[in-house]
Amino acid sequence: MRVITWNVNSLRARLPRVEELLTQHAPDVVLLQETKVSPEAFPHEELAALGYHAAESSGGQWAGVAILTRADLAIEAPTTELFGNPLPGEARWVEATIDGIRFASVYVINGRELGHEQYFMKLEMLEAMAARAADLKNEGTPVIISGDVNVCPRDIDAWDPVETAGRTHVSPAERKAFFEILEQGGLVDAHVQRWGEDTQQFTWWDYRAGHFHKNLGLRIDVHMVSEGLASGIADVRILRDLRKGSKPSDHAPLELDLTR
User: Which domains does the chain have, with CATH numbers?
Assistant: First the structure.
């Protein structure tokens, strides 16, 4: 099974790049974030023409998440509810069962800056995710939670731990909350499982000042995978070519290949 997560930073603007992703990489499941479309503008017909259908939570100009899968795979029991989510109207969570796995696509609140109201909301959302992951673990459901978590779990996940210190994404409270999701849900960070603790790779680069070409990035997009599925992780790849070219997102897709 091939699973890809991607913060597309506007699905309508990036639709040709999504088509490129689907055509070239043939994923079974795609988890999208920051779709930035209203429910009536979600491109169901265009995706159907490419052989995919979707469960989505669309909030209009901001946020928005979706789960795409091949047309021959059923999307079962979709929901956009995340108990304890401090911003339930912002379309930041969608989950559904596909081929026996419970998938969730998540776009975690940015947090703006330490001490900001949205920083504390971010911690609340991460706590809500940990509680949901624990519930799914207790149900015995295989789980993959993927998306833009807006947290660099380790120092190596930021281009410069000294320069980024004191900002959101790297604070001890955010990192603790991230690891609580893994612990409570019985999940592994697929990137670390595949590449180990000492490999530095990024999934996001600022559009400004040539950060992508200088490789000044962050690893903030993740696949969190049930321990029972983790032995089947064959590869995890950052698809850097889709961060290049015409109208790229500021995130690169993150591909997970599982043998089942």
Answer: 2-258 (3.60.10.10)
